[in-house]
Predict the 3D structure of the following.
Amino acid sequence: GISDEEHDEAEREVQREAYKDAIRLAWSSGVVTGEESPALENMRKLFGITTDEQLAMEQEILDEYLGKGNG
C-alpha cells in the first residue's frame, strides 16, 4: 500500500490537474464568463490552492497556449 502522505500528495496532484483543466476549459472560449469565474474561485478554495499557486498554474497554461511548453 501507500502511506497517508503518499495518498495525500497523489490526491493533491489530481486536484491541481483538475483545476488546471477547469482553467483551460474556461479559457478555451477566449474569455472567462461571469459564471466561470466564481466556479473557478470555489474550486480553488475547495482544493486549498493558494492564489500564488493559481497564478503559477495560469502562467503554465498560458505558456502552453503560446507554445513555450514544448521545450
Notes: The CA atoms of residues 59 and 65 lie 10 Å apart. The two ends are 35 Å apart (CA to CA). The mean pLDDT is 92.
